Amino acid sequence: MAATRKSIRLSSLIKSPQLLFTTIALSSSRGSISVRFVESFSITSYNINHHNHNQQQRRCVHLPASSSNSESSGLSVTGPIYEMNGITTVKLFTKEGCTLCDKVKDVLESVREDQPHSLYAVDITDDDKQDWFDKYKYDIPVLHINDIYWTKHRLSAEDAIAAIDEANRGDFTLREGEPDASRLEHN
User: What is the pLDDT of residues 86-140, one digit of tens each?
Assistant: First the structure.
């Protein structure tokens, strides 16, 4: 069977100008079928206000990789997200394409004016972060405050405000439940 490739423009199927497009590629060789999806797409929406001005908003939506052999950009996400000198430091243990990590980052950004802090990303897939990968590979996002384990998976604005306030006062202490996948795995 010859290899085939088919692209579908989703915007033509759903009659919505907000979804730009995505491509689904199908290929067949010797009876096996491989499906590859794009890892992100953009949504554009228009808001019309009372003064008849259009405000365009564009949002990039990241999807998880569709298979284990999908390619990532290979770029590290380690580094400062925002910095404020001399105050609490929050570390977000993450990796490229982690949508739960993006949600946690958004929560932290939303409270930074009320509870000042610096936010740094630590990419657990970096070559020099193997120990963090071994511990956190099943549990990102994981958060530390001033290099002390804080929480994992999800974060509410209320929890962020309370913990950062504790740290800014110097009262933050280690929380229970720090993940450690390497301890649970059998060699």
Answer: 789 999 999 999 999 999 999 999 999 999 999 999 999 999 999 999 999 999 9
- Identify the CA nearest to 84 among candidates 109, 102, 101: 109
Largest Cα–Cα separation, the chain: 68
pLDDT per position as a tens digit, 28-53: 444 544 444 434 444 444 444 445 44
Task: State which H helix or E strand residue 85 sits in.
Answer: none
Q: How far apart are CA 72 and CA 23, in angstroms?
A: 17
Residue with tokens 């000042």: 116
Q: Are 94 and 101 in contact (CB under 8 A)?
A: yes
The CATH code that applies to domain 79-182 is: 3.40.30.10
DSSP 8-class letter at 87: S
